[in-house]
Amino acid sequence: MSRRTACAGTLTVLALVLTGCGAGQAGGEKDDARPSRSAVPEGAPAAFRLDHVGERDGQLTDLAALGPDDLWASGYDQKNGEVTAGYLLRDTGEGWRRLPLPDALADLPYPPRLDATGPGTLWATGAPAEQNGTPVIARWQDGRWSTVTPPPGGSLLDLVAFGPEDVTLLQDPHLPDQDDGAGNITSDDRSQVAHFDGTRWTTTLLPSAAAALDGTSGDDLWAVGHRSKGPGIGGEGQEMTQTAAHHFDGTRWTTVDTPLRRFADPVPPEAGAALGTVFAVAPDEVYAYGRHSFNHGEVEEEPDDEELRLRWDGKRWRDLPEAPGACGTRPPLLLDGDTGTLHENLWYQAADGPCYKVKRPELPTGGEVGKGARQGLALAEVAVVPGTDRIVGVGHIAVMQSGNPFSRPVTVHATR
Questions:
Q1: Beta-sheet pairing, 340-343 with 332-336
Q2: Among 87, 180, 187, 267, which has the highest number of CB atoms less than 10 A from its own CB?
Q3: Stated pTM of the model
Q4: Rounded CA gap, 363 and 371, in Å?
Q5: How many angstroms separate the CA atoms of 246 and 383, rounded?
Q6: Nearest-CA neighbor of 114 among 106, 125, 98, 105?
Q7: Is pLDDT above 60 for 11?
Q8: Which among 11, 3, 9, 1 is positioned nearest to 233, based on CA atoms?
Q9: Poorest-pLDDT segment among 98-102, 152-156, 258-262
Q10: What distance in Å separates the CA atoms of residue 245 and residue 318, rounded to the nearest whole number?
């Protein structure tokens, strides 16, 4: 399942467009301090509970559930706000145990992202310190780590895998700027997909920029993002970008139309739309999320940003009805099967039910946690454990107090 979003861009609208850059700040926003009093629907999670609390300052950044008794997490220690060491955690049914990173990933500046490719197989990918560096790829299989030669050129944006011989990467190939022949220089922000068949990589350049990748199989993939050319760009509307979706049917990638966006006149400066998250449930049920925004602060009367929520029904992309309350303004962390959707800051939209706040855990008062300290849980990644009714999350709890604020990496779980 696709989980990463683009968090940087030269245009204000892309800088983001995507509210899904991480899981929000620990501690929540003002409306998070007043959770909904709606009753928890039957079958939906009511509360997250602590499973593991790290002994040092730091955060957990990613999660992969290979099976009921094989969970992996990646994270880092920090000191004085600086990352000092990356590491792995693994739970084989007897609690979380800290492990070192494989040698290929040990010297990277940040911990790797993790992706399960079935029982017993884990992919760990990271980026080197140099800008635009080629990704480093390691694979855990048959109880040992090995390295995989990366595809040529391009930093990693997203990854989806359906087995050791069916892995697809989404990359930014960092193409050089283009000259249109009239002296106008424009950036070439097209993205690249690379497929691994167990032996070699095959690369394809998409016609526009993509930020997220997901699919139901290697023959049914979606890459979503934005485009800066074509219908709805420039002209009277002055929209700089429109949303974009590209589909792979096992043979070739094609661009599929998405709804056009345009602010009412007068259109605000540097307006544009982009998608940053995609979840594929079935070939005729795919969800994409993003934002229609602009460069704020340049005009007195500004329109509201538009949260984008699209659904593919097998024939076309359509706008989803507006979700109630906080669930309509926060990107999703997890599509929880037929039960509902978990959104950023632990808001849960039950299927055909209310939007409510899942109760978050706190560290016990005493010792480092002073009386009256404020605490906030931020989840970086959430997954349903295969074959169970458990939802597992990783992230950190920030303790905000005078004299000794700190952050502890945590794993949590909720039961459906």
A1: antiparallel
A2: 87
A3: 0.86
A4: 11
A5: 25
A6: 125
A7: no
A8: 11
A9: 152-156
A10: 12
